[in-house]
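Predict the 3D structure for this chain.
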Amino acid sequence: MNVYDFKVKDMSNNEISLSEYKGKTLVIVNTATKCGYTKQYNGLEALYKKYKDKNLEILDFPCNQFLGQAPGDIEEIHNFCTGRFGITFKQFAKIEVNGKNEDPLYTYLKNNCNIEQGKKIRWNFTKFLVDKNGNIVNRYDSKINPEEMENDIKNIL
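Done. Predicted structure below.
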């Protein structure tokens, strides 16, 4: 089993199979628009622009679980992110990343990552790097800026 076995909801609430991303390197991130780390959208977009032609995809999952820092519906979140940060990577429906209603993708990511950060997502902008075969390569805490992931990304592209 790997990330390609999961289905998620897109911004229009349509089910999307992550198998559509087979052969691509992925950064999967839970985000929020009113967080101290929201400025990381700039770094995520810069990585995406730099490496999208080398099959990097960034999958953005807004999450309102941490102090309600992703208020509004997905359209409001998307308009904020495209307007303020000019993001062009894929955004998905809002999800939960911890607890009884957590998305199965996040259950898998947390349980199958070799990094010992605990099983819970501690905050917004936790990032998972996934190789082109769907294997989790690394997990990055919110405090790690996207630019600090660049060497790891280059090494697996």
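The chain has one domain: 23-156.
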